[in-house]
Each structure stands twice: as structure tokens, then as C-alpha cells.
Amino acid sequence: MNWYGIVIGVCSFLIIGIFHPIVIKCEYYFSKNVWPLFVLGGLVSAVISIMVDNFLASALLGSLACSFFWSIGELKEQEERVQKGWFPRNPKRTYPFDSVEEKKD
User: What pLDDT is stored for residue 96 in this prediction?
Assistant: First the structure.
């Protein structure tokens, strides 16, 4: 029997699940401007994935790389969710949409 497919699927599910709170916390504390770190993490994971000989490790590193890259867009969307009030704002920093809301009033 070959369990690679199930193992890769479960691990990918866990990686994606771990990235959701990472995106939320990064946007809360650092804003969406932390996206270059996600690019770096994605590139490093992708390069290592190409260099690793082990199939399972390569697949999981590729999944990690894609999760890093996907999170870049999620950071931008998370800021929109904060603007809509779906997630809490960090009271210690200003948001780009603050000035827009003030002009509407």
C-alpha cells in the first residue's frame, strides 16, 4: 500500500490550517506590509523542495511554499476583513482606510 497521498493530503491540510492564524496575527501586529517575508519563505521552501531527493519531503515543502505564496493575498484580504469589522483592529497602529472613513463622515 502507498500512503503518500493520504500523508501529503493531511499534512497539507495542517499546513494550511496553521497559516490561517499566522496571517491573522501578522496583519494584526505588523500590517499587510510583512508580505515580503512570505515571499522569502515561499522562495526558500520552493528551492529546498526542488533540491530534496525525498519525494514526501519535497511534496510537503512544495505545499509549504504554496501556502506562503497564497498567504500574501490573504494578508491583503485580512486587512479588508478588519475594515469590515469582521476581525479586531490593533488599537496601537493606524490603518490606511482610517483616513478614508474620516473623509466619509
Answer: 77
Amino acid letter, residue 57: A
Residue 73: phi and psi, rounded to 5, are -65, -35
For the stretch 52-61, pLDDT in tens is 999 999 999 9
The number of CA neighbours under 13 Å toward the Cβ of 92 is: 5
Question: Helix (H, G, I), strand (E, B), or coil: what is residue 73?
Answer: helix
Grid cell in block for residue 43:
522562495
HSE (CB half, 13 Å, CA atoms) of 13?
6
SS3 42: helix
Is the per-residue pLDDT at 16 higher than 90?
Answer: yes
What is the Cα–Cα distance from 67 to 17, expressed in whole angstroms?
10
Q: Residue 97 has what DSSP assignment?
A: T
How much is the average pLDDT of 9-18? Answer: 96
Q: Where are the alpha helices (DSSP H) in the chain?
A: 4-30, 35-51, 55-84, 98-104
- pLDDT at site 75: 95
